[in-house]
Amino acid sequence: MAASISGLLKPWTPRVFLVRWSRYNPYYLEPEVRKEEYNRPETDLSPEEIEERELKIHRPIKAAVNSVSSSGYNDPVISKFINMMMKHGNKVLAREIMTDTLESIKRKQVEKYHKAPEGKREEIECNPYAIFHQAMDNCKPIVGMASIQKGGKYYQVPIPLSENRRRFLAMKWMITECRENRHRRTHMYEKLSQELLAASAKEGNVIKKKYELHKMAEANRAYAHFRWW
């Protein structure tokens, strides 16, 4: 009797040996943060999904990590942008600036929408999240420059950029432009909303900086083979 009870309680008891990479034993299930998965009827589920849903009723579930959220407004790209814009650990201020920026973009686009004639209203994008992502995609460079030493001399060699590096440069240029090239009476969110709207239309100083980097890479394409040395 005691052996059977200990066998039933074994998956629930913590491990004797500590594991560096996880505090949960394999008996715990992975968390599901997508709300739409819980609202799906059983008729739309496969046998494996039905079995997994029944297991979650009786077995414990791991806690979700901090970077994962079930909120519909959660956006990992905007979260990265807020972290880059943050100074001295004041994330509350950075999040407020981003919220005011999205609200300012929404107001400007809605005002533009109502002033436009009936035939051109469909062309105006009023979703600030879509405008933000479009601006970031337009600001991402394709190639970059790397300083490589060859024969006692340093050459500026064009190299292809990874997706993370492209996103980093786009965000860095946008934040630097809004901080350094704005009037002292202009708020940060006003300048940021202006630059995002301009970048979404492939205009502005950030787009110019991207084209200048591409021109420099085109001018130094004769040294492109040095990146393999």
TrEMBL record:
The keyword Ribonucleoprotein is assigned to this record: yes
GO BP term, example: translation
Domain Small ribosomal subunit protein uS7: 67-221
Any one GO CC term of the record: mitochondrial inner membrane
Pfam families referenced in this protein's UniProt entry, alphabetically: Ribosomal_S7
Subcellular location per the Swiss-Prot or TrEMBL entry: Mitochondrion
This protein's name: Small ribosomal subunit protein uS7m
Taxonomic placement: Eukaryota, Metazoa, Chordata, Craniata, Vertebrata
Entry similarity comment: Belongs to the universal ribosomal protein uS7 family.
Principal place of residence: mitochondrion
Key word Ribosomal protein present: yes
Highest taxon in the source lineage: Eukaryota
InterPro entries (alphabetical): Ribosomal_uS7, Ribosomal_uS7_dom, Ribosomal_uS7_dom_sf
Native source species: Xyrichtys novacula (Pearly razorfish)
Alphabetical keyword list: Mitochondrion, Ribonucleoprotein, Ribosomal protein, Transit peptide
